[in-house]
Here is the input.
Amino acid sequence: MDSAKLIWMDGELVAFDDAKVHVLSNALHYGTGVFEGIRAYETPDGTAIFRLREHMERLHRSCRAYGIPLEHTVDELIEVSRQIITVNDLESGYIRPLVYYELGAIGLNPAAARVRTMVAAWRWGTYLGDEGVAKGIRVRVSSWRRIHQSSFIPVAKGTGQYLNSVLAKQEALATGYDEALLLNMEGNVSEGSGENLFLIRDGVVLTPPVSSGILDGITRASVMELLVSEGVEVREAGLTRGDLYNADELFFTGTAAEVTPIREVDDRSIGSGEPGPITRRAQELFSQAVTGKLSEYRGWLTFV
Ligand code: PPE
Here is the structure.
C-alpha cells in the first residue's frame, strides 16, 4: 500500500510511523473490530467523497451488530474523513475507518478494553488491476463457503469475519485466478472476497439478495439505482453456479473494485469473453456519478 502522512486516531493526527497499537490489543487476538472502505474522487469542482454518510452509517450498524460502543457520531466521522483527505494532500484516495477493541481485556469479553477509532487515507489505484477493469478478470468459484448468518453477521464489516475472504482470495491467487466467488452454505451464489456480484441474462440484471449472506454493498445499491434510471430491468434473485456459466455478462462491484468485469468463471468464457454492453454502461455511469458528472446524483458526493 501507499504510505500516508497522517492518520487520525481518536481525535489526534498522528504521523504514519507513529500510528501504532499494542500487541495485546483485543482486536488483534479475536478480530473484535469493524471497518469501512470509502473512496474519494477528483471532480471538476474539487475532491469529493462518494456516499460518505452511507459508509459511516454502515460503520455504526456494524458496531451495533457486534456490540461495540462507538462514541463518534456519523457527522463527526464525516468531518474527520474530509480532514484526513485534506491533511494528506490527496486529490483522490481510499479512506479506511476502523473501530477496534484495544488494550484492557484479553479474553472473549472485550467490554473492559478501550474502544479506539482511527481513520486513514492513502492513494489506491485499481483493486483488481488496470487490465482487469479494461478487459475483465478471471474468477474461480471458491472451495470455501461464505460465512453464514448462523455464525456471523454477514451484513456487518467485522474484521474477524474477513479471514473467510482471505482464505478464498489466497486460494484463487494460488490456483492462477484473479479473484474468488463464494457460494453460501445453501450452495447459491453470494459474492466475491471483497465485491458484490451482478449477472446479466437476456438484458435483465440480476444480483443475489442480502439474504444470500452478502455484504449490503453501497456500490451495489448505487449501480442498481443507476441502471434502473437508464430503464434497465434490475432484480434481486437467487443464483446458482450454473447461472454463472450461462450468463451473458458478469461483473463485480465494490468501493475498492468499483465496477470490474468478469471474463471467465472456472475457465469458462462468459458471453463473448469480453466485457458486455451493460457492464460497460455500468462502468461508465458509475464513473460519471463518482466524478460529479451526473447532476441527479450530486447528493452522493461530500466535497472536501
Ligand atoms: N462484499 C464484501 C465482502 C466486501 O468486503 C465489500 C467491500 C463489498 C462486498 C462491496 O461493498 P461496498 O464497498 O459497500 O460497495 N470491500 C471493501 C474492502 C476491500 C479490501 O480489500 O479491504 C472495499 O471495497 O473497500
Remarks:
- The chain has a mean pLDDT of 97.
- Residues 52-65 form the longest helix (14 residues).
- The two ends are 23 Å apart (CA to CA).
- The chain has two domains: 6-122, 130-290.
